[in-house]
Amino acid sequence: MNIVVCVKYVPDATADRHFESDSTVDREGVDGLLSELDEYPVEQALRIKEQQDDEVQVTVLTVGPDDASDAIRKALQMGADKGVHVSDEAIAGSDSIGTSLVLAEAIKKLEHDLVMCGMASTDGSMGVLPAMLAERLGLPALTLASEVEYDAGRVRIRRDGDTATQTVEGTTPVLVSVTDQSGEARYPSFKGIMAAKKKPVETWTLSDIGVSEDQVGLSTAWSQVMATEPRPPRTQGEVVADEDGSGATKLADFLASRKFI
Amino acid sequence: MREVLVLVDHVDGAVSKPTTELLTIARRLGEPAAVFIGSAEDADDTALKTLKTFGAEKIYTVEDADFRQFLVAPKAEVLAQLVQQVSPVAVLVASGAEGKEIAGRLAIKTGSGLITDAVDVQGDGDSAVTTQSVFAGSYTVRAKVTTGTSIITVKPNAATPEQAEGAGAQQAVQVEISEGAKGARITASEPRRSSGRPDLSEAAIVVAGGRGTGGKFESIEEFADALGGAVGASRAVVDAGWYPHSYQIGQTGKTVSPQLYIAAGISGAIQHRAGMQTSKTIVAINKDEEAPLFELVDFGVVGDLHSVLPAATEEVNKRKG
Ligand SMILES: Cc1cc2nc3c(=O)[nH]c(=O)nc-3n(C[C@H](O)[C@H](O)[C@H](O)COP(=O)(O)OP(=O)(O)OC[C@H]3O[C@@H](n4cnc5c(N)ncnc54)[C@H](O)[C@@H]3O)c2cc1C
Question: What CATH number was assigned to the domain covering residues A2-220?
Fold first, then answer.
């Protein structure tokens, strides 16, 4: 069985993020890492691999600049078998429409029974990529799984929605996206770190996957950013110390002054 | 005037407040046309009247008996077929998990650009200009779709619902759902127990508790009830199993933008801020005066929430009289 896990290399969320003059995100000055939310699908893929008697091959796929290979390396250290890195200057500035095209065409070149994704990226955070990818691949999508079970070509997930908790089932080939509730991701062991050095990583360009330059990139995005503006920082209001229980009264005074009571 | 399709969000026919917000926004862009996917019983007089009251000129009803048990994909097919038929200026969908998935699939199906999580949408000539709040609320972005139909998911509270009687002409639509869209079958569904409090994403007031509660959420709930607000939680609380995940606020939970946000025992990590930073008024109660959340507050109390909250609840109840 073959599992392809899509992962993203993102700027560290705890660092300051800002826009470049062309309204793309500045990814240069900020350290990057494997999106924390993409550690969860890697973890689920590895758990499936461990549970199966048959051979399971876990491939991590990423689209991004040269540095994005760091994200692949981290997944290989965790235990994935091989990596594919699609890297091409023309891809820079692509929106989710362009990125989903590149991922879909790359996945078509890989054997895949299961395609796994995180719930959203920690930077753009649109959360629409799994759905777009499923649509492009013509696959059913079991999305936002907080629990994943695999058994002989059948996948069953638990999905905690706003109004109900659902059980959703599908058969391979299928796409599964998992949430941060699905189970703690493992840390790479020393052995894993050493083993990762010998694992194969292929680098593909757009022409390797049959996508032309005019299908991706900033200039062909289907939506356009007209303006970006830093939000004025909030100015801190009054902060009082709760001495002899005065805090509650002052809080009530404040709420009353703003007409919340 | 060209139509603006609004996907109606409803539970067994009860139309959600965000849907009335979408209809209000649709009027700025063209002629609102509601798309109601559900059973014939769901599309009852009350539901149709609500849509009409908030401006629906047309109401497309789609019987979903054949595809109700499948996740998301069929709904995207319904919308894609309608987009083909009526060439709308825009399609508006509420920004929940399901809404975003439907919109993502629809964008690919129709070759259209997609903008998610708009906090405002305005008409500008022939196009819809959206405002989004990004990077944990630290930037505001204005954008528009340039290819195909504008597909936009809109956050709750992006507009104040305004009544404006529409014609509400009802039209039943027949759709063909492909076998391919029937690959994700819902085999069990357990409705969530209602807390009786306002819905978190739509509430005007939210009282949220963090690790500092030590798991004792009664004082959070009681304060929320005194103010008529919803209850929320930080991820630390959810991870500890003290409160369900559906109440989590932040990057991997809900994004809320209420009139008043009160955080008790929450430090204010960037991932938490991402879900509440655009609240109008922010109040924090924390025993650590260095807690980063204090940087954002309009009012703060440095103190122990276990004494401040019960006293404040009493004070609020007393003043309400
Ligand atoms: C990928 C990713 C996604 C994440 N998504 C989210 C998310 O969606 N939402 C979210 O909330 N977090 C999220 N987090 C976690 C986030 O980084 C923080 O760990 C979390 O928000 C901390 O929760 P907290 O503020 O309740 O706990 P803490 O940071 O432990 O803060 C507890 C606070 O309570 C105060 N306190 C303690 N006792 C009392 C008392 N008696 N009275 C008053 N104050 C008291 C303390 O001074 C402290 O400030 C995410 C993290 C990652 C890596």
Answer: 3.40.50.620
